[in-house]
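Appendix B: complex inputs.
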Amino acid sequence: MTPGSGRFLRDNAFLVAAVSLPLVVVAFFLLSTAIPRWTVPPPAYDLLLRANDLYNYNQATPRVRVEYHVRDGKVEATARAIPANTPVTRTALILFDHATLISREISVDLPDNLVEGDAPRTIVVDTPPGQRVVAQARAPDGYQLETRSQRGPGIVGELFGMNRYNSDTMLTNRGRVVSLTLPVPYQNQYISSVDAVGWLVPEAGAGQR
Amino acid sequence: MTAINSRTRALEDIAAIARQHQLSAAEVAAAIGAPPAATEDNRARAVLVRVLGFLGGTFVFAGIGVFIGLQWGQMNSAARVVVTLGSGLATFALAMLASREERFEKATTPLLLIAAVLEPGGMLVAFQEYGSGGDWRLAGLITAGAMAVQFGATFGMLRRSTPLFVALVFGTLFWWTALDLLEVGNKEIALVLGGSMLLAAIGIDRTGHRDITPVWYLLGASAFLYGFFDAVERTPFEIAFVAAASAFVYLSVMLHTRTLLFVATMAILGYTAWFTGEHFAQSVGWPLSLIAFGMFMIALSALAFRIDRDYVRVRKSG
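Resulting structure:
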């Protein structure tokens, strides 16, 4: 350090401290976010998610309400007819691929001929060979699904009228956060609710992917 | 007798100052004999002209804003960016030019302030028009950072208080957004930024730009105490809040700042009101609690007034 810079620091000690204080806190929080990335391994299992498009005005959408649940290691879709004058909400089954970190919708052949009063119809969704679905919140490697809504535009955006609120869907495990980018239109929590159906784990005897 | 003494003392003071600044008797006499800079009548006219000038400028600015607002729907992306960011940059360039010309020197501050509003607005419009989604806070972070650097450099060049003030505003917004992006809690942000604003205010107080510090003392102390109360509320360390507020009273005396004294007094009063409502409203009864709180308020106000008179104001003028 040169005598000039030393004198500058001494003369402006409070200003230097004013800049250093938030800098130190930011550095501390950056470190606390970075450490789990080095110590916690990435997700090792695929996840099946259920997402609702609450504002679906597409007339082509079958007038059925679908519920996804896990039975005997398989996902079952139970379709019920939606009564007349009731808004149609579209429920999608989404697969998060842990290897590519990409989420994609899985097409399910839903019946489009159900009418009010018909018995519910159950369709078994195919799972990749050698894998079964477990309906537990936490994966065997510790990851679990979390949604954080009300993420605003920040103080600058608020001040300048950029009022846009988003939500994050993520997998978390001991401080490590893996963000999920869901297909459109399921990215926004205000028009879509997302929750986990189950984790895809290798069947007994089959090796993990 | 007293009047003669004070006149003698005044003459001695004038002579001391003249000797200190190596002024000749002729120069002092000429300065005393010169006509006053502005008569009362002239001053009133100048104030009126200035107020009308500010009002006129505000109407023009508001009119342009409304006009842009009405045309906004018909504008394409480039037009929107040009009309906001372009205007901001043009205003900033005008401010720089005005600062070099003595005739337009007074226009520098309002032009800088207008640029400080238009430029970040324009940058965010550019992000909105040409961005492809993502976290808005990143756009806010870049905007605040760029503005802080720009106005910091402007302060370095012009050495005026206005760009320093604006640089501090955007610097604070930058750190706020950065901490928000790192998912730091509100109370921690308030504590850190409150402390940082206070330190910056103390640092600036020692320079020739101390005119801008009361705002930073107010914001810094308020944010820090808010964060501190949030951290200790309903914990065994809650009483530490009163200690912190009292420390600010002491700091206000050390730094000779009434703003800090005001915030600290308000904090103690606010805490007392909160504490009374929380613990005594049910047991002692609300009316009695109010009476006790009112008496405490009167006593504290008197104490704050005395501290200001005996320590802050005296030492400031001394």
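Chain A has two domains: 3-39, 46-202.
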